[in-house]
Amino acid sequence: MTLVIWTDQAAVGSEPLDDPYYRYIATAPEFQPVKHDRQTLTARWDTWLYMPWRYQWTIGTGDEGGQFCRDFGINGGFTDHGDGPFAWLEKWNLRFYNDHTAGKGYLYLRDANQRSRFQAFQRDPRAIRQDREGLKPLDEALLAKLSALVRERVTRLRQSPMRVAYALDDEISWGIFVVPLPWRVLADDQDYQRWLDHYYGGKGPQAQFVTPDAILPQLKGQLKDIDLSPLLDRITFNDSVWANFLGRLVEVANETDPETPCGFVGGQSPNMWGGYDYAKLMKKIQFIEAYDLGSSQAIIRSLNPQNCIPQVTTHFHSDERGTANDVWQSWYYFAHGNRGMIGWVEGWFDGTKPRPWLYEYRSTLKELGQVQGPKLVGARWIHDGIAIYYSHPSIQVSWCLDSEAHGRTWVNRGNDHRLGTSHLVRKAWEYMLTDSGLQYSFISYDTVVLHGIPEEYRVLILPACYALSDAEAQRIREFCLRGGTVIADFCCGLFDQHGKARTRGALDDLFGVRHDGTERAQDFFGERLWVETDQDAAYNYKSYRELFATIPCQLHKGYAVAEKRLPVLTLRKVGKGTAVYVNLSPQRYLQYREEGTADDRSRLPFVTPIFDAGIRPWIQVTNEGRRPANVETCYWKNRGRIFVFVVQNAPVTGSMFGETGATSLKTRTIPIVVRLNRTVRDVQDERSGANLGDGDRFEFQFPMAEAVFFSFRDDTQ
Question: Residue ranges of the Beta-galactosidase trimerisation domain (predicted)?
Fold first, then answer.
């Protein structure tokens, strides 16, 4: 059995590079982390916490409300703007986070949920960040104002022994959510020019201020003539200013209260817009609640140093989805590293009387908060030696290519997480791995530039990695040469990190393929767009079949051939390793999964190279002799034991306002057999408390809206 613990380890033998992008990442403040002390971040967050946001908390904050919390297993709470009720929270032993520690209307702009109020700025590249109250650039004046507010509120909050985290604000953005809004975040253009010079390693290009209108005409020509950098460089600058601004506010909170983590809530999908480059964000925060959109939860877990940052998500009850969805969300996200949930209180009470669904939910709250939660405090995620590459420049390029279908109506684009090529490709890879019984972690571009691919990984997946720097390409070659397997699906490295197209792909030599820069849209997928789907025609699609029907594509083994000039499945031995260029898009796996036809055979074009690298599931789950559909195993290491979850990996839907929940959730209980690839000792059923002894085969009843949860002694120490 091979257990690989997520670490902060750099690749053995990786050396500094004489490369401007390397120097930028090594020295830029946006990549310098705030303090991430493991003991501080886990000390008082010592179980799974359910923290209601008291929107319609009609039961009140007296004894009746306190007794309700105790009776229903609610062990957390919240305060707002640094106000109480501190005495009530302490009396009922409710640990809380504080929302709006930096106020409201600054990190989340006024009327941000009313998109029409900002439309006038979407085509004005000279506009400065603002709302109905006036200009709000992310400058020193605003930082001083918010720093004073944070100090004042944290000084009051730190008196409470029940505090566990500070949230600067909710649903924050350098724009509004992740709406395309290419304005300036600073009024001084010289700030941008100085950053550009640093970014390019000397004298950078003259700063430009453009919108997507300026880059869309380029997509009608040849690849070599596309230059997205005038737009993408400035969006990258905005992301950097944003990350540094947040980091400085976190440090202000730390100076005032060194014992309590600080971050934000209402996190969005990774995106070109709004500041959601998680490689930068995760270095600047110590607490986060994020909606599970665009793989955000898995990316956060992967980039969470030592898994010590408290990571939670939001619970929105829906009568339509039913209580099974509430139960499933709680177990699923606990199994994936969440330290609790923030409950949006709407539809909870009839007057002061709890509604029936709460009676159905309370046993889950009690079990996770009182019994299971402490077991994973300080635990480390285990992967199977598989890394999925997190390339934020590729997410930016993907947005630009995807937006061509909209033309000038790009200003109306939303729900990028359910439309965008980068997001759906990434999600398809995740599902193919977990449906194959394998686990993974994301690895970010800055880590690879500085340190290479860590030794703990044997396979690197490059999902829709349109944009790669020379430094990244060199690190990826090094990984392959020393024995790693590198798998790219399509369009790998056709742009550099600025969004400027290359004549040859950054890794063409590694994969043994050739691009020449004369490629046009008709050389990819269908006949008229660079991407697999027309995301304007299927903007409100109801099924993946509807989305993929928008552009007829040549299929190979059920998947769209991405680049018509190249062969499918090019495999090349490189040094001690293997490089595989699939030249297929994995997106249609989402359709097959949705329709219930996904199986081992449908995954083979993508997972065969992983199996050929010697990676196999070390836990097999079967029902009546077959692996149940959409079942995932997760594993953690903590205090001398390995903890294993078997959960249902149901699709999650939601919006930028949250409202997340599972679709097609199965709620029946099925018998399963769990087989391990060796005998393990001292096996405990963590839910029943039963000691199952030693062995390599165990039987459980699996309630599919909950989890099987067992552990065994860690003999790998």
Answer: 455-587
The packing angle between helices 421-435 and 600-612, to 10°, is 80
Give the β-pairing of 577-581 and 658-662: unpaired
Q: Report d(CA 332, CA 478) in Å as an integer.
A: 36
Q: Is 518 in a helix, a strand, or coil?
A: coil
| Residue 473 near residue 499 (C-beta atoms within 8 A) | no
CA distance 155 to 169: 17
Residues whose CB is less than 8 angstroms from the CB of residue 148 and which lie 6 or more positions away in sequence, other chains included: none
What pLDDT, in 10s, does the model give residues 515-565?
999 999 999 999 899 999 999 999 999 999 999 999 999 999 999 999 999
Residues 355 and 72: beta-carbon distance below 8 Å: no
Stated as kind and residue range, the H or E segment containing 188 is none
Distances (CA, A) of 404 to 178, 356, 396, 538: 18, 48, 13, 14
Q: Taking residues 207-212, what's their average pLDDT? A: 98
Bridge partners of residue 703, in order along the sequence: 669
C-alpha–C-alpha distance, residues 209 and 452, integer Å: 34
Is the sign of the CA dihedral 557, 390, 289, 419 positive or negative? negative
For the chain, how long is the longest CA-to-CA vector? Answer: 72
Q: Which of 87, 103, 122 is nearest to 273 (CA)?
A: 122
Tokens coding 493: 């490295």
**Domains, in order of start, for the chain:** 34-185+231-380 (3.20.20.80), 384-612 (3.40.50.880), 619-713 (2.60.40.1180)
462-490 pLDDT per residue, tens: 999 999 999 999 999 999 999 999 999 99
Residue carrying the six token digits 């820069």: 517
The rounded distance, in Å, linking the Cα atoms of 242 and 264 is 13
Residues 100 and 169 sit within 8 Å (Cβ to Cβ): yes
CA–CA distance, 421 with 427 (Å, rounded to integer): 10
- Where are the extended beta strands (E) located within 327-409? 340-344, 349-350, 353-354, 380-383, 386-390
